[in-house]
């Protein structure tokens, strides 16, 4: 079989204003300052706990060693479906770090980023591109099936305040029609199909070129064929960077 290829003040009163306010106001200023310090400490504690949770989450994800190619693809699609949980742009970070250097280059090129671009900016740019309206890859990142059979999901807010309806329930089913093609050289190819969960209509066929590195699989290429009427169903294959960018 031919291999499929390609395709994130409070300003303290100055001595002048202090003199104008008067000595009697000094205790009030001190109390306010204490409250500010208390609030700052609470905020720092929250940020620390949030960062600690994210770090534990990353370790738990990265510890999923010896996944099969199908398990890897399923985990990747599941993470992309809620791209801003547990943190903003986390799904795009997961995609980027789960890719080979070759596919990372494709992702950077798709959003006009250079090799020296900071990764956080790359993740943010991927989010801006994939989450815009009428974007055929939006189906992967919680934007709905976008096939005319149901109302589209509202745009994603790139903060932690994501609408409760967004990404909480999968709107497509993942189907693996064939066994994984393992080349026994550290590479593999697997096909998955996304079907509308309500109508069972075929939406997209994705061929994943994978490469094994260490104890995990990485994305090395993606072959995308769209069957939604809105995106010229079944006519050839579009390269990722031509549509994502």
UniProtKB/TrEMBL annotation:
Protein known as = Nitroreductase domain-containing protein
- The species this protein belongs to is Cyclotella atomus
Q: What is the lineage of its organism?
A: Eukaryota, Sar, Stramenopiles, Ochrophyta, Bacillariophyta
